Amino acid sequence: MVMTGAKGSKVNYSMIGAMLSQQDLEGRRVPMMFTSKALPCFAKYDLGARNGGLIMDRFLTGLRPPEYFFHCMSGREGLVDTAVKTAKSGYLQRALMKTMEGITSLYDSTVRDADGLVLQFKYGEDGVDVMKSPYVDKFEYALDNLAILQSRYSTDKAMSTPNVARSIRRADDYSKQVARELRSIRQAVKERNQQRKAVEERQFDLGPAIERIETTFKDPWKEVDDPAPSNPEMSPPDPSAEKYHPMANVGSTSEKYREKIFEWIRGNPFLLKDAEAYIAQMGEEGLEEEDSKKKKETKIKHVAQGKLMTPQEFRVMMMLKYHDGLLQPGENVGCVAAQSIGEPSTQMTLNTFHLAGSGGATNVTLGIPRLVEILQRASRKQKTPLAYVA
């Protein structure tokens, strides 16, 4: 059942076949009673592993009485959590929903509340719907389902439409310009850093001259105190998605997405027609002379199925797919966000009982008080004011 994914996890599997491991009660070992024993059968002041709740037995061969009592303690805690913390997580979800239900996306791609206050200038900082984002950059999956995608995103029809073709060419030209300017800025910054390093490595003091050099070599567009760059030539260009809004310009995507498409074309030229000429036209390095056996087999399969298309057609199709994946105006993003926090918090509570006593349930159980502390109490003295994400 565990291997097929029907029910159960590796933790349940290990509890049946190996051992129940250390029992946790509210994030701690099993405490001692007023008699200085965890159970009457242990010696006083015994700090050993078994006295602290370590169960070496497994369900397959059965538990000894002390281990059985320890596991009953953990199971009782799970039952209490199921009864008490379900109410807490339910109210937490309701509070989130009532607070965020007025947050929607508008036609200018901003996310605003009921009073019109701007919360985000672009939903998720990229404007892509979270329900469609996992499939936006699945290029090989798109090629395997080419017939369906071509019927939905007709590249020939799109490129024959003057407005669409013009907007795609305009976005392409601007993206190339942005890439050139960014390369020149990076090169200039690199040269200045090398010059600064050469000056710093000298063994004599230049005094005020170093201050003047450092002031000159600073990146003008990274200066926090100066909102307007002192050197306009060194200011970074606007992203193409900002200059040509995707909602008004079909084919306008982020620079990162364009790079992803081109990198995939470079890595999989055997799946497209005339990919070598296209890559050479883009000014990139040549391809390997011989494809691997797997690549040749994949190419033969796609040729037999008639799935080969030119890189330009593939690029246009993926741009249209990106455009289709943008968040629709009027979407209740606040309700989606509230639900995405509230529903897993309820599952945090319910899963505690199934992992009674195991170490994996400790962080799960303590998740509800943490959410309440952050979202409801808004306490000034939080237990964990700073969290690190690995």
Question: From the helix content, strand content and strand pairing, which structural class follows?
Answer: mainly alpha
Quaternary form: single chain
Q: With helices defined by DSSP (H or I, 4 residues minimum), what is the helix count?
A: 16
How many domains? The number is: 2
Number of strands: 5
Low-confidence stretches: 221-230, 284-291, 361-365
Description:
The protein has helices spanning 10-17, 65-100, 133-136, 139-144, 146-152, 155-160, 162-200, 208-217, 240-243, 255-267, 275-281, 293-304, 311-324, 333-354, 360-365, 367-377, and strands at residues 21-22, 54-55, 104-105, 111-112, 118-120. By secondary structure, it is an all-alpha fold. The chain has two domains: 10-100 and 342-377, no CATH class; 135-324, no CATH class. Helix 7 runs antiparallel to helix 8. One of its GO terms (biological process) is DNA-templated transcription. It is an enzyme of class 2 (transferase).
Question: Brief description of this entry?
Answer:
The chain is 53% helix and 3% strand. With 390 residues, it is mainly alpha-helical. The strands form two sheets. The protein has a three-stranded antiparallel β-sheet, with no helix packed on it. It has a two-stranded antiparallel ribbon with strand order 1-2.
